[in-house]
Design a protein that fits this description.
By secondary structure, the protein is of the alpha+beta class. It is built from five helices and four strands; from the N terminus they run αααβαββαβ.
Amino acid sequence: MLKIGAALCTVVLLSVVATSVFVSAETPQEKKQAGPPKAAVERARKTVKMLDHIYKSSIVLITDKYVNDENDYPAGSAFVELFKSVDKKGWHKVRLIDLTGEPYESENVAQGEFEKQGGKQLKAGKPYVEEIIEKDGKPYLRAMTPVPVVMKKCVMCHPHYADVKKGTPIGAMTYVVPIE
């Protein structure tokens, strides 16, 4: 009887230990491996698409209505300043980068592998590129969208765009949006 009781206690004890190790080891790893919830990633994608539409539509509208010659302040330059302000507030990061190899400003070039490879994919015809990253323990959606020449006025500041085939991306918008 004593042997059965000791054996039963050993089995129970091993079960408790195994269960606690299994639970404590599995739960944090599952959270790390699973990444952010799908619904949160979808919200971040929707935010990127909304921002992309607002920023691009605004640049085109301002260029159309207020940029009439080479002496006028370019809408793209105004938005670079806006993007810095948005970043400073901590909302998200957004950059306008060149994909032609002839940037308007030297800082408007691809930085890092994601932007370099994303730029190649956009130039090859892909309409959107993304990846999920983690910074300071928080998830973010990095995304890129193409910027084609859409108006004749674009070549006032960028004469090297004059011969670019319609629809070809000459630049990209890059985003880093928190996944919440």
